[in-house]
Amino acid sequence: MENIFSSFNISGQGLSVQRQRLSAVANNIANVNTTKGADGKPYQREVVVARANPQSAFDKALQSQITLGNTSGMHAPNTSMNYNNPDAKVVTATLGHDNSPARKVYDPAHPDADGEGYVSMPNVNIVTEMVDMISAQRAFEANTGVIASVKNIAKDSLEI
Asked: Can you give the pTM of this predicted structure?
């Protein structure tokens, strides 16, 4: 049963990352025309960077040089690695900012226009944000599908 719960944990982490991505996309879309933030600069696009945790037990197993020994031709000895750590993070997500330069738009009537009539607009592209939103939504749905499948497997195994 522990492996089933670790499946819930892994998919739950995936749900959390996709929720963060959707939140960042929503902030970006909401601020697509924000020319001045609290710091007086145009809004900078938020990005969520998800990375695999290099300290997970699975990753350590892949990086180590494990040699399996046989006591007979039929089986290999058990290893001491524990893959069922509920606190282990498979993936970590951090919120950052896209440091690409602001777009310059000619609008001399805008109150934030510079001396030449250009306004520094946020580095947000609405099409990119919509694509990111669809991608995050589909990944979120995939993780919920995994949770539903694991739940059904657990339910069916209890009926046996």
From this structure: 0.73
